[in-house]
Write a structure and sequence with these properties.
Helix content: 25-40%
Largest sheet: 8 strands, mixed
Number of helices: 8
């Protein structure tokens, strides 16, 4: 039987596309890093892009449509689980809720020629960042001509049971983001749109992924997530989300099914 060349080409294109998108993401290296948050080209009033993700849904990660104000079947299912009054259902619903991760456009010091990258972090770093901006002694640290750089101290995990840590410190001196006019133009006009990096998901696509996850034995094909992913990390900048196993999914469906038919439970909870 001859190999399916068209399928091979699709796989290659998908890998190349993901590699290209991950090139637009930045992760701090161990030790001290210095970056400058810059205005987001596609929303100049707000450089802090709050994205919500489903982690490990069928061993894949998905951008939740609540990010852009649309309905999410996984959230709807989680809400229905909460209404059953069952403690296991409630626990499962919390695991299914999308988790926030914030992305900001940055210029990395020492790598300015690479243009604007997107740095992602969790709630604690986000809170600290907003606190600096709200402090009149600092103000708008993203201003291109009179903003402030940020020192990012990154400590990798030290083994099982530990998490990477991220600490930030805003530099006291106000400086221009760059004195290079060409780079300044790239910063202002050459940024990718965030949804070119993290693909929007349709309602039906996520519903199919959820149903396959709830009842993997009946899944004839695996719905593909499309996130160019970075390591989920840190007690200070991310929430770790382990996928519930099939046994828990069955427990969550007990009220709707007396025969352990998870697909039926899914349909009953959605009807």
């Amino acid at each position: 039987m001859a190999i399916d060349l068209e399928a091979i080409r699709r796989k290659l294109n998908n890998l190349q596309s993901q590699t290209k998108r991950t090139d637009n993401l930045w992760k701090p290296k161990p030790g001290s890093n210095q970056v400058r948050i810059v205005p987001y080209q596609h929303d100049k009033d707000n450089p802090f892009l709050e994205l919500f993700f489903h982690y490990d849904l069928g061993k894949k990660n998905y951008l939740s449509p609540v990010t852009y104000g649309e309905s999410d079947p996984v959230v709807e299912f989680a809400d229905k689980l909460k209404s059953t009054g069952n403690s296991d259902d409630w626990k499962l619903s919390k695991k299914l809720e999308p988790k926030m991760r914030v992305y900001v456009p940055v210029v990395v010091r020492g790598e300015e020629s690479d243009g604007v990258k997107f740095w992602g972090f969790g709630k604690q770093v986000y809170t600290e960042m907003l606190s600096f901006i709200a402090d009149p002694d600092y103000g708008d640290i993203t201003d291109l001509s009179a903003g402030r750089d940020i020192v990012v101290e990154f400590t990798p995990s030290e083994g099982a049971g530990s998490y990477p840590k991220t600490a930030i410190r805003v530099k006291p001196n106000q400086t221009a983001a760059t004195e290079d006019k060409a780079l300044a133009n790239t910063i202002v006009t050459g940024q990718p749109e965030i949804f070119s990096i993290f693909k929007k998901q349709s309602y039906d696509n996520l519903k199919e992924a959820l149903e396959s996850w709830l009842n993997p034995d009946d899944a004839s094909s695996q719905t593909e997530g499309d996130l160019p992913w970075e390591t989920k990390t840190s007690t200070t900048n991310a929430t770790t989300n382990a996928a519930p196993n099939k046994e828990k999914a069955t427990t969550a469906s007990e009220k709707a099914s007396s025969t352990d038919d998870i697909s039926k439970a899914f349909d009953d909870l959605f009807s």
